[in-house]
Write a structure and sequence with these properties.
By secondary structure, this protein is mainly alpha-helical. The chain contains twelve helices and no strands.
Length: 216
């Protein structure tokens, strides 16, 4: 029953996103922004000002007010934030787009922390698109940890490795990354060869990656 409700929410989000994309393509920026502002209330059940004022942690706490994550609302807010961020990206306003992209990514990870629970490929598609516009160095420690866990559980090893190495290059003094990198590569190497290759890596690449973290 809950799965059916989430699927209906995804259908509503599809209609919303097609409308916003159409408005963006027509150059109707103000109308697109108004559409996203309205969607926070109609689909997310929250005022847009409140969504932007709350921190990631406070917003998640609010969505867990009844003890368990409200996955459908969480997903709706994540997608609305992503579309709104895209509008600001079009306008060349990264100071507005990046915070929305970051909050969207965190909410996607909170909505369905287990990739097997996500309907279809919604979460993975969204996460991949968000990683194209979010620098790994901009991720909070908690978001980074959750992202690495999600990607590893999903078997998206090459994507996880890209994020891990980008963050290491940007934050070479972050000693916690050594343990995270070691844990990641050991998890990959626990898989059979065909499983590793399905995730976009080879056993040799994973062994080389592990060695690069152990030698530091």
């Amino acid at each position: 029953m809950q799965q059916d409700y989430v699927l209906r929410m995804i259908q509503q989000l599809g209609v919303f996103m097609r409308r916003v994309v159409g408005l963006r393509e027509e150059g109707k920026t103000e109308e697109a922004l108004q559409a996203t502002s309205d969607a926070y209330g109609t689909m997310g059940g929250l005022n847009s000002s409140l969504v932007h004022a709350l921190s990631e942690d406070d917003l998640i706490h609010l969505l867990r007010a009844r003890g368990a994550m409200d996955s459908d609302r969480c997903l709706a807010l994540a997608e609305i934030l992503r579309e709104e961020a895209n509008i600001y990206e079009d306008l060349g306003q990264p100071e507005q787009s990046l915070p929305r992209y970051l909050k969207s990514l965190r909410l996607h990870l909170e909505a369905f922390p287990d990739p097997d629970d996500a309907p279809g490929n919604v979460s993975m598609d969204a996460i991949e698109s968000l990683l194209e516009v979010i620098p790994a160095s901009a991720l909070s420690g908690q978001t980074f940890d959750r992202l690495m866990g999600f990607l590893t559980d999903a078997g998206a090893y090459a994507i996880a490795e890209d994020v891990l190495l980008e963050r290491r290059d940007a934050l070479p003094e972050d000693e916690e990354l050594l343990g995270i990198g070691e844990e990641f590569y050991r998890s990959v190497l626990d898989q059979p060869d065909d499983g590793i290759e399905a995730g976009g890596l080879t056993r040799e690449e994973a062994e080389e990656g592990l060695a690069s973290f152990l030698e530091n």
